[in-house]
Amino acid sequence: MLDTLSPIPTLTHAHKLLSWYDRHHRELPWRVSPSAATAGKRADPYHVWLSEVMLQQTTVQAVKPYFTKFLERWPKVTDLAAAPSEDVMAAWAGLGYYARARNLKKCAEAVANDHHGIFPDTEEGLRALPGIGDYTSAAVAAIAFNRPSAVMDGNVERVISRLYAIDAPLPGSKPEMKARVRELTPTDRPGDFAQAMMDLGATICTPKRPACALCPFRDDCLALAEHEPERFPVKAAKKEKPVRVGAAFVAVTENGEILLRRRIETGLLGGMTEVPTTAWTARIDGGTDIDHAPFDSDWHPCGAITHVFTHFELRLSVFRTRIPAGKEPTGWWVPIEKLDDEALPTVMKKVITQAIPTAFAKH
Ligand code: SF4
Q1: Contact at 8 Å (CB) between 151 and 172?
Q2: 139: buried, middle or exposed (CB in 10 Å: 19+, 13-18, 0-12)?
Q3: What would the pLDDT profile of 154-193 be if each residue is shown by its tens digit?
Q4: 234 CA to middle of ligand 1, Å?
Q5: Across residues 51-74, what is the average pLDDT?
Q6: DSSP character string of 274-318
Q7: Closest CA to ligand 1's atom 3
Q8: Sheet strands (E) in the chain
Q9: Residue in 17, 157, 161, 163 to alter for ligand 1 test, most ligand atoms within 8 A of Cβ
């Protein structure tokens, strides 16, 4: 625990890291990179907030084109606040964790309507906004407003747990890790320090085979001294995810149009677009066959897909039918080559691809 570890010259650590960051930071579209020309300049809070929400559970490479697309369509937070929800959901499609997109819109509206389009500049003020939790409020406060917040993400947890060889398993060790980061954070460049910790975790202190020889902490790192960096962070044993099952139905007209419908607003993937499916149930006798099809037709089985959500694994049997144009079940028909314009979550893209392997090939 904190008081049993040897005292560390924290400011020296911070400055070693910052001088590494000045030379080796990643260039990111939402970031103001450190240089003489940008001294004292801070990143736009809207850009920081948007990127941080997108980056939760998603890689930097995957986020970059989405970030650029969002800024092109909605250059200011007030533009995003005024956008139709369906447009925002469709632009978000493919990033996953769709509750984030709904909260993104709500948060933009709160900033536009309750704060005159200006983000609050403290952690507490930011946390009071819809959908902004501890991590995002700390990250935006540090990066956009240079507040000395302890910003904790997976990268930072890995670095700090190795630096101090923290033996207690996650998630119970989070408070200790946060206290350590708070202790290390310098008052002069806290925003750059937060980004430097993230960059170090992403590029040097990687989960496997960290490049310790290049690390600014190599002379002080307790995990390296013990020759076992990869043992950290220690994690509690994982429970197996429960499985849910269901069936999905891809109906295609002779004109090459697919039947889609909208999920109800609340709950998982709320408001997103889908092909007709049964309820997703944990019952072993759940609806997984053509008895549950949305209408009578000549349905053919075409395999199954698996998709892993945060709290369960979903297995969907997929069925396909070809029908004459003009049928009018509940929903709407979309030409296959226009599917990319729909707010289809990844699980639905998997279903459609299972039924029509070329559906998302570039037309
Ligand atoms: S010395 Fe190695 S294990 Fe320690 S913080 Fe640096 S990269 Fe990570």
Answers
A1: no
A2: buried
A3: 999 999 999 999 999 999 999 999 999 999 999 989 999 9
A4: 15
A5: 94
A6: E--B---BS-TT---SGGG-SS-S--EEEEEEEEE-SS-EEEEEE
A7: 229
A8: 243-253, 257-262, 273-274, 300-308, 313-323, 332-335
A9: 163
| Ligand 1 centroid – CA 157 distance (Å) | 12
- Span 139-145, mean pLDDT? 96
Count of positions (residues) in the chain? 363
Pocket of ligand 1 (CB under 6 A): 159, 162-163, 204-205, 210, 212, 215, 217-218, 221, 223-224, 229
For 39, counting Cβ atoms within 10 Å of its Cβ (0-12 exposed, 13-18 middle, 19+ buried), the class is exposed
CA distance 274 to 290: 17
What lies within 8 Å, CB to CB, of 264 at 6+ separation is: 270, 271
Q: Which of 180, 218, 219, 234 to mutate to test the pocket of ligand 1 (most atoms within 8 A of CB)?
A: 218
Phi, psi dihedral angles at 253 (to 5 degrees):
-80, 170
Nearest to residue 16, comparing CAs of 224, 214, 233, 166? 214
How many CB atoms are located within 10 Å of the residue 311 CB? 9
Is pLDDT larger for residue 359 or for residue 212? 212
So what's the pLDDT on residue 239? 81
Count Cβ atoms within 10 A of the Cβ of residue 114 and give its class: 0-12 exposed, 13-18 middle, 19 or more buried: exposed
Domains of the chain: 9-231 (1.10.340.30), 243-355 (3.90.79.10)
